[in-house]
């Protein structure tokens, strides 16, 4: 049958050449995924990220992960080329879902970053950072380690914030429930702490390490401020907590760009639901925004390139309920008339697609069902959910279609007892 959807073959890393050319001089490249547990999404993003760093001078990778854990990775890949094995380092990601960043695919990427950075001069080493907002207690603990170096006012403000949260046993959900219907909360304490840390005199080090630690301390304070808002918004329901989270991730991305200078370039790894422009999905009806939309609006569409990912069938790592042990699950054939089913019927193999070519086909400019698997997944319930109505050629600038995919390979990480609260029936 004659193929009507324009596409390019996708078999090996060299097949990414047209994508590198299309990215051009974009300052920010957002790389999605249709699940948090698919081997090929991680490996193709890694292949593209390596080329962006080597060939286009991108400065860092920022991921949908917690700031404190990711910053440990950042320091390791820049300062510890012969440090503990990457597989051991990544077991610090012990917050459920542990497999998102604690997996062998990321371990291989961390090994590559170490090798790459070992050959780079100071100031040219590629970084690895977390954009997310969940780590309220961990960020407070990190601040307590460093605030004293920034003056007495900062140290006292940090102590007050820490003590305010202490009665809640490091459990953000317990805190949110306790303050939901009273006027007493910790908002003033974390805001005062953030302002105190922002007023400190920056320190500098010959290797840039002190500058990064300064930035990380202030970033942890920003996480604490926005996490406090996030967990309270969570209990109110609706899309407000989602928006707090994605605004925080965009603010963090902009701060990282500022840290690395006016010519800096960033690679972002997040779920399609965060990187694909929300204005071209049904999210807009609920008043929800995301990082892809905010990046285009704040940085200019010409400076942002968004790549979506998806597959027709295969297997995935996920949990059957929030906080449940991970399992390898079968991903059934995509629902009929979905974006993935159309690509399977029309192309039937891995392919790279570009939105400027897809826009020539009016049928592809409709809202099509586009699969989205979260960390919670029940394959037998796919017909009731797991699809986001999407205008694909507008939501993304390019799309990597993988006809059949496999589950990624988690590390044997023991999960922390404090599981973040379940927010939505679909979780990304």
What is this structure's SSE topology?
Blueprint: E1 8-9, H1 17-23, E2 28-31, H2 39-56, E3 60-63, H3 67-79, H4 86-89, H5 104-118, E4 127-130, H6 136-146, H7 152-165, H8 172-179, H9 187-198, H10 209-236, H11 240-260, E5 266-269, H12 272-275, H13 291-299, E6 304-318, E7 327-331, H14 339-346, E8 351-354, H15 355-358, E9 368-371, E10 387-390, H16 392-395, E11 398-405
Parallel strand pairs: 2-5, 2-6, 3-4, 3-5, 6-11
Antiparallel strand pairs: 1-8, 6-7, 8-11, 9-10
Which features would summarize this protein structure in a list?
428 residues; alpha/beta; EreA/ChaN-like  fold; two-stranded antiparallel ribbon; 16 helices; globular; Hydrolase/PRTase-associated
């Amino acid at each position: 049958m004659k193929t009507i959807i324009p596409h390019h073959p996708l078999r090996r890393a060299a097949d990414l050449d047209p994508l590198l050319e299309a990215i051009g001089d974009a300052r920010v490249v957002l790389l999605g995924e249709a699940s948090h547990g698919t081997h090929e999404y991680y490996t193709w993003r890694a292949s593209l990220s390596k080329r962006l760093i080597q060939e286009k001078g991108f400065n860092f990778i920022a991921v949908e992960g917690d700031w404190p854990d990711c910053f440990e990775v950042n320091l390791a890949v820049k300062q510890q080329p012969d440090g503990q094995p990457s597989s051991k380092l990544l077991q610090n990601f012990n917050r459920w879902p542990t497999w998102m960043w604690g997996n062998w695919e990321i371990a291989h990427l961390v090994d590559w970053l170490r090798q790459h950075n070992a050959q780079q001069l100071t100031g040219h080493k590629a970084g690895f950072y977390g954009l997310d907002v969940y780590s309220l207690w961990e960020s407070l603990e990190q601040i307590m380690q460093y605030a004293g170096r920034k003056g007495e006012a900062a140290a006292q403000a940090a102590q007050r914030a820490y003590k305010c949260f202490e009665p809640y046993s490091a459990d953000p959900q317990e805190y949110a429930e306790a303050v939901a219907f009273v006027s007493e909360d910790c908002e003033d304490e974390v805001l005062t702490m953030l302002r105190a840390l922002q007023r400190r005199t920056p320190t500098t080090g010959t290797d840039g390490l002190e500058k990064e630690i300064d930035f990380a301390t202030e970033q942890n304070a920003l996480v604490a401020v926005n996490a406090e808002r996030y967990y309270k918004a969570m209990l109110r329901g609706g899309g407000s907590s989602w928006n707090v989270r994605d605004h925080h991730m965009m603010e963090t991305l902009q701060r990282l760009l500022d840290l690395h200078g006016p010519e800096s370039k960033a690679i972002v790894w997040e779920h399609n639901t965060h990187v694909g422009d929300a204005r071209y999905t049904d999210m807009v009806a609920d008043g929800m925004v995301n990082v892809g939309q905010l990046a285009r609006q704040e940085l200019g569409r010409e400076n942002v390139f968004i790549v979506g990912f998806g597959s027709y069938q295969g297997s995935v790592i996920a949990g059957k309920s929030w906080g449940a042990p991970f399992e390898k699950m079968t991903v059934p054939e995509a629902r009929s008339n979905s974006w993935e089913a159309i690509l399977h019927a029309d192309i039937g193999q891995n392919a790279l697609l570009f939105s400027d070519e897809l826009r020539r086909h009016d049928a592809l400019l409709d809202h099509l069902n586009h699969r989205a698997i979260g960390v919670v997944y029940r394959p037998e319930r796919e017909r009731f959910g797991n699809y986001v109505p999407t205008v694909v050629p507008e939501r993304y600038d390019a799309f990597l279609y993988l006809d059949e995919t496999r589950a990624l390979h988690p590390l044997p990480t023991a999960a922390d007892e404090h599981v973040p609260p379940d927010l939505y029936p679909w979780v990304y």
